[in-house]
Specification:
The chain is an alpha+beta fold and 151 residues long. Among the domains are: 49 residues, no CATH class; 48 residues, no CATH class. The protein is 30% helix and 15% strand. The strands form 3 sheets. Strands 1-2-3 form a 3-stranded antiparallel β-sheet, with no helix packed on it. Strands 4-5 form a two-stranded antiparallel ribbon. The longest helix is centred in the N-terminal third of the chain and has 17 residues. It is elongated and about 100 Å long. It is a single-pass membrane protein. InterPro entries: BA14K. This is Lectin-like protein BA14k.
């Protein structure tokens, strides 16, 4: 028992003295003074939070947005941003489900009639094709508009 006590006493002394020795060994050097006047004038675009535009591009939380749809991206203020731009919001929101924007359906203009070749092509290609609304039923998901080479 005496050996364990002696060993623990030496170990405690070594740990206690190790914190004092380096402080006395190095001279105290004052930290360099940084002027706040210069640092306030420069703001990096990638550090800025929120939505803003610069140089014809849109940025959200430092991520560049794109005007057209991109797979895996989320829509915000008319632009598509990567999911990583919204990570702070997801952490606060408790892991909200991912939003998938539906693909837009552009109905034919009123009075616009498709050609017979288009109807024949879609009918031959898709078993579930309906000519009156120009749509077909894919294996997964909602009905989709048929777009042929004659469209």
């Amino acid at each position: 028992m005496h050996g364990k006590t002696l060993c623990s006493t030496i170990l405690a002394a070594a740990i206690g003295l190790s914190g004092i020795m380096p402080a006395a060994a190095a001279p105290a050097v004052p930290a360099p003074v940084v002027s706040d006047a210069r640092s306030n004038l420069v703001i990096d675009v990638h550090e800025r939070r929120g939505f803003h535009r610069r140089g014809g591009y849109a940025y959200y939380n430092g991520h560049r947005g794109y005007p057209r749809y991109r797979d895996g991206y989320r829509r915000h203020n008319g632009y598509w941003f990567p999911r990583s731009a919204f990570t702070f919001e997801v952490i606060i929101g408790g892991g909200a489900p991912r939003y998938h924007a539906p693909h837009r359906y552009y109905a034919p203009r009123r009075g616009y009639r498709l050609t017979r070749a288009h109807y024949r092509w879609c009918d031959a290609r898709y078993r579930s094709y309906r000519a009156y609304d120009n749509s077909f039923q894919p294996y997964h998901g909602p009905r989709k508009q048929c777009v042929s080479p004659y469209y």
